[in-house]
Amino acid sequence: MAANFCVKMKRPRLKDIAEALQISIATVSRALKNHPDISDQLKLRVRQLADDLNYEPNNMALQFKAQRSKCIAVVSPRIVHYYFSTILKGILQEAEKQGYQVAVCETGHELIREVKHIKALTQGLNDGLLICVGNNTTDIRHLEKLQKQGIPFVLFDKDVSRIKAPKVVVDDYTGAMTAVEHLIAQGYRHIAHLQDNGVAHTSQKRLKGYLSALKKHRIPYDESLVLQLNDISIAAGYEAVEQMIRSGKKMDAVFAITDELAIGAMKAAMAHGMAVPQDFGVVGFSNWQIATLVTPSLSTVAQPGVELGQTATKMLIQMIENEQSAEEYHLTRILKTQLIVRDSSFRKRVVVNT
Amino acid sequence: MAANFCVKMKRPRLKDIAEALQISIATVSRALKNHPDISDQLKLRVRQLADDLNYEPNNMALQFKAQRSKCIAVVSPRIVHYYFSTILKGILQEAEKQGYQVAVCETGHELIREVKHIKALTQGLNDGLLICVGNNTTDIRHLEKLQKQGIPFVLFDKDVSRIKAPKVVVDDYTGAMTAVEHLIAQGYRHIAHLQDNGVAHTSQKRLKGYLSALKKHRIPYDESLVLQLNDISIAAGYEAVEQMIRSGKKMDAVFAITDELAIGAMKAAMAHGMAVPQDFGVVGFSNWQIATLVTPSLSTVAQPGVELGQTATKMLIQMIENEQSAEEYHLTRILKTQLIVRDSSFRKRVVVNT
DNA sequence: TGTTATACTGCAAACGTTTGCGATAACGTT
DNA sequence: AACGTTATCGCAAACGTTTGCAGTATAACA
Known about the structure:
354 residues, 434 Repressor (Amino-terminal Domain), 3 domains
């Protein structure tokens, strides 16, 4: 009776039920878990009271006892980012399926924040980590420390070649190569490549793909057609291509490391009177939503974000539940990209392959 | 010596340090916490060994003891969504600042998943919740239950008028009104409104803003200019406006509930030979990234996503740390939107206000 | 009556940490 | 010599739950 007057009712515990029913805590626990040792009659009484009190087991106590939290954490350089959102969606899907909670944090490509977050996330709360390192992460001592501590983790999207650990990445090399081969098949011959500063692993792989495609089709490599940009924005792409055109450089196509760069390139070409795709072909990378919205629509290399997230999560949970450390479980899964041909690179006529 | 041969070294505990140093666990704990009761000499030895063993306190034990996890959880309808990403970024920023971990989950606007996730997230692991209900959430018993349990939570973005709880929302009404007034000021008179099925609180507020603007400027309300669509995609916007044009309906502008709808509308108008913004004005809602990329660029109402996330998080953490339940802390923060005028609605001439 | 099986239920330890309080020694003071 | 002070450290309880083991009562059987 009087208990109801209490404004702030404490969370009920097994002990409360036990005392109310004059039985032991152990019995309550077993009754709620439908243990055969407990009589049906008592089970009923216990469950009744548990429902009335709105009893929910205290997960902090459970995970403390089990030393398992059923939580994993994601370390991502960016949150407001179409591709990373996609990956996160895949992670959440798989985690939900397996009953795991997912903590998220953003590093903004800053090593300090990366280190800080990883440290905070590993102080016992999470069973494992999904990490995408930042573009500037060359110092990998924090990852090596993770390994030493035996904390399960999986690297995703960005490869870190210097560390042996489970990884899930996208086949940037083949993706880029396929894209450039497509441009070549469409008859473009002077294909420029727009990339960022080039330090990131992905950038290098895509450049290699570009080079391989040229080589395979016996197209001479022109160094001046590969542009390193500080920025991967639309404006940067626009500016780069405009300068090239102004300088009189012969160029009839662009393969860009980003959809945004590609769109900038496309706009610059059009602004200078070139028709896309007739005079100028463009292929981007990532298949952002905007690729379908620009005119002409942008051909691009799609990365399987959801699949990547799912795969990484599956691997991580497997490591956790089999108690395998990252060290003894190094295997790199490479996911296929898919070339999506849209209007910006499809001349709609049969092209003789050289 | 032999311990080093052990392949899988267990995580060191205070007990391990204590035994190695032949002192009590309590002393180790105090030494590491720099308690004045412990001699500097012993502190040094303890810290030395702790460092050597790479000791990190077990957070599960800590949070179990304190019954505080320093974790909050976010329940969001969508993950791959520009606006929600922005909000999440704000949440993560504020949480990082205050040392909280953030768990995330996606409901996909499905009530069942919403209920399930909220239940899972509240079984003790999180100190509080940030919830954006789905569009179809009319049954709010799960929220009422949260209140009864005294678990702190803040509703964000979507208002749920039937429940008294702390909320952070955006001023959809004024945002919509300002947008429509802008169209009116630009001289448009036959302004259509594209909305979704209209059940969501935000949809209703925006419709009201639309109506208020018309009324204020003495423009007769034409019911047939308000279209409820099943879908908020570009295609849906395109189709809706195309049908209107074909039907011969007089219409010279669109205010859409979404940037995507607005872009669809714009493309439809242009496809039918109308010049934007000369013959046809368009304003969207949300300021997605694509708004700047379409031609002409899209005017839109920007929602302060980061600010919203930060505000909600601040409120939640305050509730947690002051032990205020959602019931006794109901206050609704309404954040201002900002009209961003771009090419799709700016006729670039002085317009006499009627 | 004694033995054994059956059906329940409770005791207590364990998970790792913190912390109030009590204990011990060394040293100084009277 | 007796007492007080100070510095240093340990004991044990507490947080909520699970679970192996032991215990008790009842009933069935010889």
